[in-house]
């Protein structure tokens, strides 16, 4: 059953007040609800329908008189008065039997909830839609020392807690937690002087992994005050870490719930990358308090209203806390890997989709990351000052609302006077725009001709030109900046811009800072690219030219059996040796396009990618880099070693990242001795894990893997790394077999999403292993998706995306994948989630 944006109608009733009482029991939890409804003056709909799934109705009444509602699989309907009334119901649910991790469920003995998007209907009968907002009071009875819900505590005794959340909210922001938990406590004073108690709740044993998350929370609170003028609005802010969680984290009002991997960290157990991700997710969920909670979404088609904006805000935060160029480059790498793949394949959909079957399938890179890029473009187009003015108006005008993308754009139109009709296509059209640039040079004038083209897709069969902000600079022959960055606005299918009085011909540096999420086709010569790589004042484009040179060289190695390109190796060598540059940036410069990116590039050029050949040239290029850096790598490695105590900040992390990039080159060229030494001496996970990866790659990892396992057996999050790394670093012929072996390990708890993803997310990420010509990668993943689907449809459906690029491979692989897709689809009682994903991927 498909749901359409165009069919939106408001709910027929308004809720004035909700009171819930939980009596917790693993298999027989009772939930009583008392809800004050009245007819919605803005609606003529008088059918009274409440969502409810998997609930055992014990009894219901209206204004105290028992009623017998009509029940279906999706909920209930009931005759109700044409006047305000009190609905009361009692249901029984089974949290311990809830393996889907949606609604109220149990994780290692604790109760917790995940309600977004439509999980609240598994807790009680309710209009489970985001445009129905209400004030909640919650009572919890249970034998646990810690009993939490949203808002402020009203009364607490042993085994009994009462909570009141004064801010009206939709049901998806409801949360409840109960368990034997320890609080890492702190406090924060807001700009206007409100004291807020902060707690990070963890299971006993994890207390030492809380300090960093708490610091990140306080930094986020301060940042949102300074940059967006947004203060926190309750006396209490709680975060809870949960081991079994389908996603990263959830912004429930005043009670954020986190996948433990997204909040717990200590130097010994978490890598620098983990610390950075945790900082960003803490910020993301905290920022939702304004962009998501105070202003929420009218319906789930508007998901990007809160997610795109909140991702944009958390990326600004990270850029401020760490290095802005490094953050931008990392985001672009990620965007191209995940969002571009989605936008250019069978799962393509607009940032604001117009239909869905299962909304959980639309928490995508397009809604989140392209959604954030759209905000970034808007800011580039109107300028910083106008952007923040518009945001002030947005918070003013829509506080307390369940809003739409139209509301959002209207705020910008009203505050800037700009017509955003065309800009709105970024929300309504799927597909990655391709922008082709050609140049003419005459008498000191450079003309840039732009042509934009959006490839038609089934989601957007007839795309129209979009507004594309293109940041441009011109770099002179001596490397000086002839024209400083300016924003060109493409609005037409074809458009030209002329720059006069230039003297000598400059090199155009186009799409600086990746000013729009497009594919740029700009035919520069290798010399011109090398010139930008050496001199561009824009760090993104410098990096980008290195990346393009690498890609071109790798493609020539595949197609023409060419040698690795000297100019590329020399250019990278020069940048990486430049000690005036940030080590983190130098480390990024050493990265190669991923094997999946190369497959895309080949496909785009009309070739059929061969995963084994792509793997082979990637290895050969790494060998060539190792040889080119043979002399300097040990020196840089040495210079990157840190004497001071471990800190997860950008400075130290950057040095470790460059040091570990050198370690890879050294291991390739000189063997595993240095990696073994680093493994033996490591006092932090960043160093230990990087050393281990190098040892496995050098086929010298068996002892280290065993030592690592016995050292970390007790730590789930570290063991996830142990599982994942073995698959990621396996030879292509072995990756599927290694994954299969690991599923037999006593600690392979496949019902835990983190552990499942450690093995199968890594297999899917191993391009040459997953796409092994034998088909064993496809088969293994399909076997396990079939097994997981009845247990956890949401995680199963997400994992199906591993198959989304299937159409670009050869006929043999395509046939094998199609057979696996059909095999999964033929499974009896396959979930709606997985069915929708696979039918979209497979096509007809
Ligand atoms: N709103 C959460 C976040 O972005 C994600 C929740 C996703 N939940 C889901 N069932 N898909 O911060
Ligand atoms: Zn979010």
TrEMBL record:
Catalyzed reactions: Release of an N-terminal amino acid, Xaa-|-Yaa- from a peptide, amide or arylamide. Xaa is preferably Ala, but may be most amino acids including Pro (slow action). When a terminal hydrophobic residue is followed by a prolyl residue, the two may be released as an intact Xaa-Pro dipeptide
Cofactor(s) needed by this chain: Zn(2+)
The keyword Protease is assigned to this record: yes
UniProt keyword annotation of Zinc present: yes
Keywords: Aminopeptidase, Hydrolase, Metal-binding, Metalloprotease, Protease, Zinc
Enzyme class label: hydrolase
Domain Peptidase M1 alanyl aminopeptidase Ig-like fold: 431-522
Molecular function terms from GO: alanyl aminopeptidase activity
Annotated Peptidase M1 alanyl aminopeptidase C-terminal domain residues: 526-841
Domain Peptidase M1 membrane alanine aminopeptidase: 213-426
EC number: 3.4.11.2
Aminopeptidase N-like N-terminal domain: residues covered: 77-173
Pfam families: DUF3458, DUF3458_C, Peptidase_M1, Peptidase_M1_N
UniProt family annotation: Belongs to the peptidase M1 family.
NCBIfam families (alphabetical): pepN_proteo (TIGR02414)
Protein name: Aminopeptidase N
Organism from which the protein derives: Sulfitobacter aestuarii
């Amino acid at each position: 059953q498909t749901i359409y944006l165009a069919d939106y109608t408001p709910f027929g009733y308004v809720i004035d007040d909700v009171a819930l009482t939980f009596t917790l029991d693993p298999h027989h939890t009772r939930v009583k609800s008392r809800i004050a409804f009245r007819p919605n003056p803005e609606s003529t709909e008088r059918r009274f329908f409440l969502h409810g799934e998997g609930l055992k109705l014990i009894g219901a009444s209206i204004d105290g008189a028992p009623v017998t509602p009509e029940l279906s699989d999706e909920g209930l309907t009931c005759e109700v008065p044409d006047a305000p009334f009190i609905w009361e119901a009692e249901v029984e649910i089974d949290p311990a039997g809830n393996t889907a991790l949606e609604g109220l469920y149990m994780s290692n003995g604790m109760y917790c909830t995940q309600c977004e998007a439509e999980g609240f209907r598994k807790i009680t009968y309710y209009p489970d839609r985001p445009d129905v907002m209400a004030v909640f009071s919650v009572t919890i009875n249970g034998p646990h020392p810690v009993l939490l819900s949203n808002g402020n505590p009203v009364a607490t005794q042993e085994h009994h807690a009462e909570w009141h959340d004064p801010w009206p909210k939709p049901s998806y922001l409801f949360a409840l937690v109960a368990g034997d938990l320890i609080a890492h406590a702190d406090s924060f004073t807001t700009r206007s002087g409100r004291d807020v108690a902060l707690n990070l709740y963890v299971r006993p044993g994890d207390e030492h992994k809380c300090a960093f998350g708490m610091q990140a929370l306080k930094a986020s609170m301060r940042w949102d005050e300074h940059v967006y003028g947004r203060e926190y609005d309750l006396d209490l802010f709680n975060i809870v870490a949960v081991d079994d969680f389908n996603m990263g984290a959830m912004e429930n009002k005043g009670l954020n719930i986190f996948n433990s991997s997204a909040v717990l960290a200590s130097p010994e157990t978490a890598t620098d990358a983990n610390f950075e991700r945790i900082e960003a997710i803490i910020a993301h969920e905290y920022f939702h308090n304004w962009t998501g909670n105070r202003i929420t979404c009218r319906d789930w088609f508007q998901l990007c209203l809160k997610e795109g904006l909140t991702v944009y805000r958390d990326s600004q935060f990270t850029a401020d806390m760490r290095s802005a160029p490094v953050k931008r480059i990392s985001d672009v790498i990620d965007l191209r890997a995940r969002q571009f793949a989605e936008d250019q394949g069978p799962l393509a959909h607009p940032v604001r989709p117009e239909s869905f079957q299962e909304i959980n399938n639309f928490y995508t890179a397009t809604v989140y990351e392209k959604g954030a890029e759209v905000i970034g473009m808007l800011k580039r187009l109107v300028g910083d000052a106008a952007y923040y003015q518009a945001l002030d108006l947005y918070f003013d005008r829509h506080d307390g609302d369940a809003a739409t993308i139209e509301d959002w754009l209207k705020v910008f139109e009203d505050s800037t006077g700009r017509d955003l009709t065309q800009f709105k296509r970024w929300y309504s059209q799927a597909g990655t725009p391709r922008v082709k640039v050609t140049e003419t040079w005459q008498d000191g004038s450079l003309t840039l001709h732009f042509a934009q083209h959006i490839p038609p897709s089934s989601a957007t069969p007839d795309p129209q030109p979009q507004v594309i902000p293109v940041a441009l600079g011109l770099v002179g022959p001596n490397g000086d900046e002839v024209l400083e960055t300016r924003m060109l606005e493409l609005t037409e299918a074809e458009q030209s811009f002329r720059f006069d009085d230039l003297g000598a011909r400059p090199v155009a540096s186009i799409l600086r800072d990746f000013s729009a999420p497009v594919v740029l086709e700009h035919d520069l010569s290798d010399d011109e690219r090398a010139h930008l790589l050496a001199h561009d004042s824009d760090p993104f484009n410098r990096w980008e030219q290195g990346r393009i040179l690498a890609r071109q060289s790798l493609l020539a190695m595949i197609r023409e059996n060419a040698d690795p390109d000297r100019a590329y190796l020399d250019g990278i060598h020069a940048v990486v040796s430049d000690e005036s540059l940030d080590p983190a940036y130098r480390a990024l410069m050493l990265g190669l396009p991923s094997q999946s990116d190369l497959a895309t590039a080949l496909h785009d050029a009309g070739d059929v990618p061969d995963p084994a050949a792509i793997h082979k040239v990637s290895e050969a290029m790494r060998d060539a880099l190792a040889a080119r850096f043979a002399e300097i790598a040990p020196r840089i490695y040495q210079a990157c070693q840190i004497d001071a105590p471990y800190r997860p900040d950008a400075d130290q992390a950057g040095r470790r990242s460059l040091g570990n990039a050198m370690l890879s080159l050294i291991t390739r060229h000189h063997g595993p001795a240095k990696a073994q030494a680093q493994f033996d001496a490591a006092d932090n996970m960043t160093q230990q894990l990087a050393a281990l990866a190098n040892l496995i790659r050098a086929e010298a990892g068996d002892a280290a893997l065993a030592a690592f396992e016995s050292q970390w057996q007790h730590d789930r999050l570290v063991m996830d790394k142990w599982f994942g790394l073995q698959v990621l670093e396996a030879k292509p012929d072995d990756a599927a077999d290694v994954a299969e072996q690991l599923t037999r390990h006593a600690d392979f708890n496949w019902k835990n999403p983190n552990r499942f993803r450690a093995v199968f997310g890594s297999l899917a990420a191993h391009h040459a292993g997953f796409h092994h010509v034998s088909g064993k990668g496809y088969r293994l993943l399909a076997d396990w998706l079939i097994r997981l689907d009845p247990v956890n449809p949401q995680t199963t459906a997400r994992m199906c995306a591993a198959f989304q690029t299937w159409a670009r491979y050869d006929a043999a692989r395509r046939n094998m994948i199609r057979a696996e897709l059909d095999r999964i689809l033929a499974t009896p009682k396959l979930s709606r989630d997985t069915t929708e994903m696979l039918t979209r991927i497979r096509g007809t």
